[in-house]
Amino acid sequence: MTDLLSAAPEDPREPMSFRDIKQVVLDRIESRVWPPDSLLPSEKDLAEEFSSTRTTVNRALRELAEEGYLERRRKAGTRVLNAPVRQARLAIPLVRDEVVAMGASYRYVLVGREELAAPGWLAARFGLPPQARVLHVRCMHFADARPFQFEDRWIVTDSVPGVLEADFSAIGPNEWLLQRVPVSNVELTFSASRAGAEMAEFLDAAPGDPIFTVERMTWLRGAPVTFARLYHVPGYGLTTRI
Amino acid sequence: MTDLLSAAPEDPREPMSFRDIKQVVLDRIESRVWPPDSLLPSEKDLAEEFSSTRTTVNRALRELAEEGYLERRRKAGTRVLNAPVRQARLAIPLVRDEVVAMGASYRYVLVGREELAAPGWLAARFGLPPQARVLHVRCMHFADARPFQFEDRWIVTDSVPGVLEADFSAIGPNEWLLQRVPVSNVELTFSASRAGAEMAEFLDAAPGDPIFTVERMTWLRGAPVTFARLYHVPGYGLTTRI
DNA sequence: CTTCATATTATGTATAGACATAATAACCTA
DNA sequence: TAGGTTATTATGTCTATACATAATATGAAG
């Protein structure tokens, strides 16, 4: 097995790629050859060591910094972070795609649809004017005829031209919106809530069951677009890897 | 306001950076100038349009692909993804840092510590041999004297030299581990569970309350290191933005 | 000795060209 | 006409150099 702490691959003819360099640097960080808070050699010095160029070394170190291992500042140099600020990346798929990826078939059912003045709590969350109108849509998503997710969504009608003409009987609001509204900013909040009576009925749960809940707020060019609460069937877990 | 759909900034003397190019391309995607599934002009053509080089255009498009907007393949070109596969990035801070960031003061208390054979469910999860030993540590994390998080952790003793000598009375196992064990691979699962009697007592909750739960499994160079369940005080939400 | 100005250094990013390679298009042969 | 081969193209990445700029070190002056 190649000694990854060495600078060069065993075959001297094979140049070190930016990925090779990342791996060597990461190995040195993890083995404490370069301990937390220590200053790395300059890019210029590393380029010499790896028989590479500053641009290639820069890319390797920049990506390690983006991944939370290093801190870089001009002139100050590159430092190993004391506690890596690791970041998990969560893919946010369409619920249809998520169900299909589970190997199940997807089904959608509209539960309710009404146009109304934005409730106070929503106007407050979004900073909406008092008379703002929203479309409130509730729907169910099924996986192989079993409940998977209950969706409770409010759409700001001024932000989505044509939304009042959409009846959402055949297609869910999220898929409809994705076709029409590119969304720039999303805020997600994961939490646990308690199943109320209606929730329990739709999700085949018992009232009081703990429900994994995702709140999703979206904006387009600074204007609020939607607020959705997604309630998952009991037992659901959202998994990601770093 | 500068018309961002134009290729060049108004001031012809200011060259377009890779960030400018990203923004123009993103604007064209969001405004459907380049609709979903469409093929973008080649990097060479875009470099000409932006009076730039392939390397600069490549960086802009590569980052947009990493952010989930584009799909790129050699020779096949660059396409706009039908549904952006957006990814949220979750910073995974130390619980101490999370509490301090909230403006509260942090306190740690060891609840229990015992060495034992790995329970069957854990051996199964990690693929451990039947006689594997683990250190089971339970502890509480407080924010301003209020319960914040209950931590239930199993540490594979073979993977962590010195762990049996650690009593964890003054410092939590996670901080202790971070000082000694760089962790390469992490799997996180977010879910909702129900507060049992002990949990309710520690977290100042009622039995049966929904509890936002994070399971964290870690490996180093392929070997299992820890399995932790983090239970959060009722009302806790984990927020991230895309 | 302290403060301010200047020099130096290390990273951030751009350019131009080169080579590698995956994927598609075009061409040739049976 | 279909299948196989070859050419072409578009992206992936590297090199070498240059310029920008943030941050630190050094030196000069009061």
From TrEMBL, chains A, B:
<dbReference type="InterPro" id="IPR012318">
    <property type="entry name" value="HTH_CRP"/>
</dbReference>
<feature type="domain" description="HTH gntR-type">
    <location>
        <begin position="15"/>
        <end position="83"/>
    </location>
</feature>
<keyword id="KW-0238">DNA-binding</keyword>
<dbReference type="InterPro" id="IPR036390">
    <property type="entry name" value="WH_DNA-bd_sf"/>
</dbReference>
<dbReference type="InterPro" id="IPR028978">
    <property type="entry name" value="Chorismate_lyase_/UTRA_dom_sf"/>
</dbReference>
<keyword id="KW-0805">Transcription regulation</keyword>
<protein>
    <submittedName>
        <fullName>UTRA domain-containing protein</fullName>
    </submittedName>
</protein>
<dbReference type="InterPro" id="IPR036388">
    <property type="entry name" value="WH-like_DNA-bd_sf"/>
</dbReference>
<dbReference type="Pfam" id="PF07702">
    <property type="entry name" value="UTRA"/>
</dbReference>
<dbReference type="Pfam" id="PF00392">
    <property type="entry name" value="GntR"/>
</dbReference>
<dbReference type="InterPro" id="IPR000524">
    <property type="entry name" value="Tscrpt_reg_HTH_GntR"/>
</dbReference>
<dbReference type="InterPro" id="IPR050679">
    <property type="entry name" value="Bact_HTH_transcr_reg"/>
</dbReference>
<dbReference type="InterPro" id="IPR011663">
    <property type="entry name" value="UTRA"/>
</dbReference>
<keyword id="KW-0804">Transcription</keyword>
